[in-house]
Amino acid sequence: MLGAIIGDVAGSVYEFDNTRDYHFKFFSPDSDITDDTVMTMAVAEWAMACVRRGDDTFPLEILERCMVDAARDYPHPKGGYGHAFHNWLFHPERLRDYQTGKIAHKRVPYHSYGNGSAMRVSSIGWLFDTLEETERVAGISASITHDHPEGIKGARAVAAAIFLARTGADKSAIRQTIEARYGYDLADSWERLHREYDWDSSCQGTVPPALVAFLESEGFEDAIRRVVSIGGDSDTLACITGSIAEAYYREIPAFMVEAVLPLLSDKFKKILKDLGDWAYASCYERYVSPLATPCPRRFTPERISTLEPGEVFVFGSNLAGYHGGGAARVAYERFGAEWGVGVGMTGHCYAIPTMQGGVETIRPYVDEFIAYAREHPEYTFLVTRIGCGIAGFTDEQIAPLFAPAVDVSNVILPESFYELLRKG
């Protein structure tokens, strides 16, 4: 995946200003990550989250959240997002179901065979033990937007090439396997591509030339130089070629890693390091680990008036579900808590009863909530200072109940709870 990011950055300044010069300037002050890196990170976050929790269905609702969250953090990456994908990310209300022609009112695939499915898939090539599982999960990652057969095929082919490269296949075996399984013609030459290749943003027009550039290369840098200098969608071509070249050559020149890592956020470095824990590549150990600082911890805001998509308001209730005051009233009036339901999920809320007795009577409901949060990583749970208002408990009494949630990434605690747990 690090190779994909380096390819993306190297090609970023040539995407709309193509070069045929093999000796192009590798990085410039304008070089930066593009949507290719942003979505590569989103797919990696999704895939690793599913692997960790043992969910071999790889739910698309989790992938959707990862992609939308990444785009919210990077709403205007270099080069922007493609028109259709931009609408999918930011204006789902405009989307139509291509099969019925009707407004979908939610994010739906748009039958794309564009190269976006292939450029974001590199992490999948590192995470699984068989070629078949690699292909299956790559297809799932594509299907959320690019459910056209060519879009799915492109993602599977790139992930398969990475898998083959990292597991010791030589270039002849990689070529033969990709041609046999996907029908791509890889007999083209870099010389012809260098003379004649033109812009093509489809999977079928991007994946084969990216593979040819890798197959004819003699090292990682040579692979990137070959693919960028054929022109076309330079950042995506180089993203794909770089992802395969990294897996095959195992080493990336230090100057490239040192130029690109500072462009990544702490969150992206953390994702990259997490993948490195799965992957064999010495450059991860040397370059990524020292720079992968922990992400800043997020705390529940003191006052919550709105929720972002996927966020859940966690509040203290009573068993009767009478939401008449405090955070319970906010939950009922703003976020869809159901009157008469005092435990669990309703609307965009989760109720934890706190009015039925002492602290120990609350613990089972907190444990039940934490288990629910673990099972639903598609949601982010904003825990308020439950029990510390009308119920009359203190932070010191309630915070220890949430100790098992400290390392549950989609549970956000009040800062006062976290500080007490940290000190404890």
How would you portray this structure in words?
The chain is mainly alpha-helical and 424 residues long. Helix content is 51%, strand content 5%. It is built from 20 helices and 5 strands. The chain has helices at 2-12, 35-53, 60-73, 83-90, 116-119, 124-127, 131-143, 149-166, 171-182, 190-196, 203-215, 220-228, 234-249, 254-260, 266-278, 282-291, 326-334, 359-375, 395-398, 415-423, and strands spanning 311-317, 344-346, 349-353, 380-383, 411-412. The protein has a 5-stranded mixed sheet with strand order 2-3-1-4-5, with helices on both faces. Helix 7 runs antiparallel to helix 8 (149-166). The longest helix has 19 residues, at 35-53. It is elongated. The two termini are 38 Å apart. The mean pLDDT is 93.
